[in-house]
Specification:
This protein has 106 residues and is mainly alpha-helical. The protein contains 4 helices and 2 strands, in the order αααββα. The chain has a single domain, classed as Winged helix-like DNA-binding domain superfamily/Winged helix DNA-binding domain (Arc Repressor Mutant, subunit A, Orthogonal Bundle). The protein has a two-stranded antiparallel ribbon. The longest helix is centred in the last third of the chain and has 18 residues.
Length: 106
């Protein structure tokens, strides 16, 4: 089961598609969660997700704009898409039968 933060990073990576490089994933995850994040937490999560086979990455050649520094791009694997779909289904199942917003039982 994916944690909420892992889901946010995966979903951001999916949304960014071909523009899913590290810094963009960091900014997008921060925006979607509406809170300040440590960049290191996002990069560590990207590494962990890659180790789990949920994403893959490739290093692109540097450009003059970046002073020749390469940029790493991320892409969801089939296993990553499956994990996100299963996580969403699990959340929906958990909430089935509950009226939103929740109210106190009287």
């Amino acid at each position: 089961m994916l944690g909420a933060f892992e889901q946010a990073v995966l979903l951001t990576t999916w949304k960014l598609d071909r523009e899913a490089y590290g810094r963009a994933v960091f900014r997008g995850t921060q925006e979607s969660l509406r809170r300040h994040l440590a960049a290191g937490a996002v990069y560590a999560t990207l590494n962990r997700l890659e180790e789990k086979g949920l994403i893959s990455s490739r290093l692109e050649k540097g450009t003059p704009v970046r002073n020749g520094r390469p940029r790493r791009y991320y892409h969801l694997s089939a296993a990553g898409i499956k994990a996100l779909n299963e996580a969403k289904a699990a959340i929906e199942e958990m909430w089935r039968g509950a009226q939103w917003p929740l109210a106190r039982h009287t």
